[in-house]
Design a protein that fits this description.
Immunoglobulin-like; alpha+beta; four-stranded antiparallel beta sheet
Length: 199
């Protein structure tokens, strides 16, 4: 007798009120849930592998969702989401919309933007890649971080809190953490003096 059968026989003696098909029903529900979840997931995130017993294990992932909360300069909380799973509203019958999840191949990295006196510092977590895999593009108001590797895909466009000089950007990558430091554009101070009369 297999150990599974022995375990179920003992279990049912202790809990005779549980119907015999209980676990089979749960197994069917899990299969249906997996099929429904697979429909909205990019094909590159679904894998199958052979088990030593001859069966097949289906895996989905990585699925990442998280958020960070920081207090902004105005004293109000700022919530930033990250990952590759986003809440969405999916179409439903009769023109209604129902809550759902949108899954993408590209993960949005956890990112912090720090405004200092003369520079803007952007820190992003992009583990599992080399520095040469990271593509950075900077304008006066945004920094774009992207990685397109077979197993690790990241994308994030960061709005910068001040105007910066893209030519001064310096990037450092160590232990999965990317740090980009960009100098702010120095604004010319108005000349002091008596001023000029206007007619």
């Amino acid at each position: 007798m297999a150990w599974e059968e022995e375990w179920f026989r003992r279990w049912w003696k202790r809990f005779p009120f549980v119907p015999r098909g209980f676990f089979e029903d749960i197994d069917k529900m899990m299969d249906e849930a997996f099929k429904d979840m697979s429909k909205g997931v990019p094909k590159d995130l679904i894998r199958e592998r052979k088990l030593p017993s001859g069966g097949v294990a289906r895996e989905i992932g990585p699925l990442v969702y998280g958020y960070s909360i920081v207090i902004g300069p105005d004293g109000k909380p700022v919530i930033r989401e990250f990952g590759n799973v986003k809440p969405s509203l999916k179409p439903a019958p009769l023109g209604l919309r129902r809550p759902g999840l949108e899954v993408t191949e590209e993960r949005e990295p956890l990112t912090d933007v720090l405004e200092e006196k003369d520079v803007v510092r952007v820190v992003a977590e992009v583990p599992g890649v080399e520095k040469t895999d990271i593509n950075l593009n900077c304008t006066e108001g945004t920094l774009t971080i992207s990685v397109d590797k077979s197993k690790h895909k990241y994308f994030k466009e960061v709005e910068l809190p001040a105007e910066v000089d893209p030519k001064t950007a310096k990037a450092n990558y160590k232990h999965g953490v990317l740090e980009v430091i960009i100098s702010k554009i120095k604004k010319k101070k108005p000349a002091k003096g008596k001023g000029v009369p206007i007619a």
